[in-house]
Amino acid sequence: MKAYFQALRKLIAFSSGGILGALLAGGLGILFIAFQFGRGLIHLSYDLPYVVRPHIPIDQIVIVYMDDESHEKLKQPYLGSWDRSQTHARLLERLKADGAKAVVFDIVFSGASTNAAADAHFAQAIKDFGHVVLGADATRPFYGMQGVKAKQLNPPLEMLMDAAAALGTVGVYADQDLAVREHSSFSATDDLVRPLSWAAAELLEADTTKNASEWPKQRWVNYYGPPGHLPNVSYYRALDTNELAPGFFRNKVVFVGSRLLTKFSGERKDEYRSPYSFWLTKGEEELFMPGVEIQATMFVNLMRGDWLSRMSKFQEVNSIILLGLLFGFGLALLRPFFATVVAAIGVGVVATLAYALMTQTQYWFASMIVIVQILAAYLWSVVFNSVNLYVQKRLMTQSLSMYVSPAQVKQIIDRPDILKPGAVKQELSILFSDIANFTSMSEGMDSDQLAYLMNSYFEAAVTKCIHQTHGTVVKFIGDAIFAIWNAPEKQPDHHERACRGALLLRDETSAFKTSAKGLEVRTRVGVHCGVANVGNFGSSNRIDYTAIGENINLASRMEGLNKYVGTDVLITGDAEQAVRGRFVTRFLGRFRLKGFAKAVDVHELIALPEQAETSRPWRDAFAETLQAFREKKFDAAEAGFKRVLEIHPGDGPAKFYLKHLHELHVESLPADWSGEVELKEK
Fold first, then answer.
1. Is the alpha carbon torsion for 184, 91, 56, 227 positive or negative?
2. Which of 272, 328, 459, 537 has the lowest CB atom count within 10 Å?
3. In a domain, 280, yes or no
4. Are residues 219 and 302 in the same domain?
5. Which of 489, 452, 450, 434 has its CA nearest to residue 467?
C-alpha cells in the first residue's frame, strides 16, 4: 500500500505540469474563439493558405475598368457621371457585337444625368443587350422605432432599372481590417436586396442560385489570385475595336467598375484588402483589390460552386479544445528535444491539414488558433521543464553538497548519467575514519552539545579535507566517515588525493575541541586502494550511491587497526606502493586481520615529503628494529623498540610491538614465520 501511494504521488507530481498545460492551451483556445481579440487569428487562418496556393486561371469573365487612364483618354470627369451615351451605351453595343454573354455594372446610376437623350440611349442599349445587371445601394435590414422591418434602397434611374434584366447591391461586407472574406448576404425573402454577384449568377441560371433558401448559409470568398489576376482591360480599350482582337468578349460575362486613385483627394475609391494584401505590395504600396474584382470573384464562386465554407462552430470549438488539451498535456511531459520535435510536427500537420482542406474540399477552420495553442503548450513545456529541472538541480545540489565537492557537484549535475542506476567495477581509493574514544567523550553531553560537536566535526572533516581533495562521501556511519576517490568522477591521481585527504583529516581535527569538556578530538583513518563495485544499490523504494566489496572491508579494517597499534593514519601496501616517494611513510609489518586469509602489508602515513627529515631518526630506528623482529632476533628487537621510544616518546607502534613480544609464544612459531602479526579482533 505504501508503494502504491508513493507511485500515485509521483504520478500526480509528474502529471501536474501536463494538467496545467492542458488547461492553459485549452482555455486559450476558448478565449480566442469566444472573444473579439481572437478575430485576428481567425482571419489569419483564412488568409495564410493563399500565400502558397497556386493561382487558378479564370476565363469566363472579363473586367472592364474605369481607371485613371480611361478618365483621361475619354475626357470624362473624375467627379460626376460619365456621358451615358458616349461611354456606357457604346460599350454595351460593342460587347453585344462581340458576343458577350452578360454585362454586370458595379455602378449605381442613381438619378437622371444632365442629358436626357443620353439616358434614353443607355436604357435602350440595356434593353437591346438583354442580360444586363445594374447596381444599387442598399442598407442592411433593420428594425425601426415602431418595430417594423425597414429598408433603404438607392436604386438606379427608373428607366434604366426597367430596362435591366436584374438588380443587385454593389456593397461588399468588409471586416474591421478592411479585408473582404465573406460573401455579401441578403434576406432570402426579399428579392430586392441581393448581392450583385448573386443577381448575375441567378440571371445566368446558376445551379447554386436556384434555391434562394440556401443563401443564409455562411459563404466565404474563394480568391483565385491576387489583385489584377482576373482578366481585365481598361475601359477606353474596350470601346476601341482596334485595340482588342475580334471575339475578345465572346461568351464572357463582363463586369464594369472603377479602379482609380482620384487626382483630387488621393483617396482610393471602392477598394478593399484581400488575403493577398498582407504579403503582396506594389512598390511601397499595399496591394488593394477593387470592389468590382471582388464582385466578379464571388460571381465565379457561385457559378463554379467552389466558394469556401467554414467548419461548423460545434466541430471547430470541440476540435480546438481537444487539440489544446492534448498538446498542452503531452508536451509538458516530454523532454525539451522531443517536445520541440512534437511541437514542430504538430504545427506542420495543422498547417498542412488547413491547406489541404481549403484547396481540396473548400473548407477552412481556425487553424492559427490551434497553432498558437501548440506554441503556447510548447512554451509552457519549456517553462515547466526548466523550472522542474532547476528545482531538481537545486535539490540534487543540496543533497550532493554533503557528499562531494562543489566542482564534483557541478560535473554530476551537468552529466547526470554518472549516477545512472547500476554498478561497475572500478579501481578506488577508499577511506574510513572514526573518532577515537567517542563513546567516553560523548558521555555527559546533552543532545544539543553532542549535535554541535558532530555537526562541527563533520563540517571540518568533509569541507576542508575530503571535498578539498575532490573525494566523495559515500555515507556517515555514526561518528565514522566512508569516502572514496575516482568515482563518480574519474581521477588518475586518486591515490594521492586520498592520502592527502587522510592527512588533512588528521591535522584539521586534531585541534578540534568539544565545547563541553575541552577535549581534543583524535581521528583514526584507514586508506586502501583496490577494485570495488560502485554505483546505485538498493530497492525500488530507495537507492543509495555506494561501493561494496572485499577491498571496502579492508579499508575499514585498516581504520580499526589504528586503535591497536597506536597510530592515526594507516594505509595498505597497495596504497603505499601507488604513492611511494610522494609521502613520508613507515612500514609497520604484516598483519593478519579478521576476515582475511592473507596477511596485509601495513604502513603508517606520516607526512608530506618536506617533513621527512624531522621524523627520519626514529623512522630509521623503527625500520631496523622491525627487521630484527621479523628475523626472530627478539632480544635485539626489544632493545630497539625501547630505543625508538627514547627518540620518539609515545610512539604507538613501538609500544604495540613491546607488548606483543611479551605475549608472543616463541616456541609455537612456525618455521617459516616472517614476523606476521595475527589479530583476532577487528
1. negative
2. 459
3. yes
4. yes
5. 489
Helix (H) / strand (E) containing 646:
helix 634-647
173 in the same domain as 258: yes
* Rounded CA separation 492/486 (Å): 7
Question: How is 455-474 classified by DSSP, letter by letter?
Answer: HHHHHHHIIIIIGGGT-EEE
* CA atoms of 583 and 429, how far apart (whole Å): 16
- Is the same domain home to 333 and 296? no
Separation between Cα atoms, residue 159 and residue 111, nearest integer Å: 10
Q: Are strands 232-234 and 61-67 parallel, antiparallel or unpaired?
A: parallel
Q: CB of 232 within 8 A of CB of 312?
A: no
- 405 lies in a domain? no
Domain that holds residue 643: 610-682
> Cα 76–81–87 angle (5° rounding)?
55
Instruction: Report yes or no: 611 and 627 within 8 Å, Cβ to Cβ.
Output: no
Q: What are phi and psi of 73, to 5 degrees?
A: -70, -35
Residue 438: give its domain's CATH number: 3.30.70.1230
User: Structural domain tally of the chain?
Assistant: 4
Same domain, 484 and 537: yes
Rounded to whole angstroms, the Cα distance separating 458 from 424 reads 29
Rounded to the nearest 10°, the torsion over CA 317, 319, 321, 327 is: -150
Position 635 in a domain: yes
Q: Where are the beta strands (DSSP E) in 51-100?
A: 61-67
Based on the domain organization, do 582 and 615 belong to the same domain?
A: no
Report yes or no: 111 and 157 within 8 Å, Cβ to Cβ: yes
**Beta pairing class for 543-548 and 523-538:** antiparallel
Q: Residue 6: CB partners within 8 Å, gap ≥ 6?
A: 541
- DSSP reduced 3-state for 323: helix
Same domain assignment for residues 596 and 615: no
Query: 508: which 3 cell numbers?
Result: 584539521
Residues 126 and 202 placed together within one structural domain of the fold? yes
- How far is Cα 451 from Cα 26, in angstroms, rounded to an integer? 53
- Three-state SS at 195: strand
Retrieve residue 303's grid coordinates.
457559378
Q: Is residue 404 part of a domain?
A: no
Pick the last residue of a domain from 274, 307, 340.
307
Q: Give the pTM.
A: 0.62
What does the block give as the cell for 550? 572485499
Separation between Cα atoms, residue 499 and residue 483, nearest integer Å? 12
CB 133 within 8 A of CB 168: yes
Long-range residue pairs from 260-267, CB within 8 A, at least 24 positions apart, any chain: 260/66, 260/67, 260/68, 260/71, 260/78, 261/68, 262/78, 262/79, 263/68, 263/78, 264/78, 264/79
- Coil, strand or helix at 474: strand
pLDDT per residue as tens digits for the range 509-535: 776 655 445 567 789 999 999 999 998
pLDDT digits (tens, 9 = 90+) for 102-116: 999 999 998 888 889
What confidence tens digit (pLDDT) does each residue in 409-463 have? 565 566 555 555 667 899 999 999 998 887 777 776 778 777 777 887 888 788 7
User: What tens digit of pLDDT does each residue of 600-640 get?
Assistant: 999 999 999 999 999 999 999 999 999 999 999 999 999 99
Residues 600 and 482 in one domain: yes
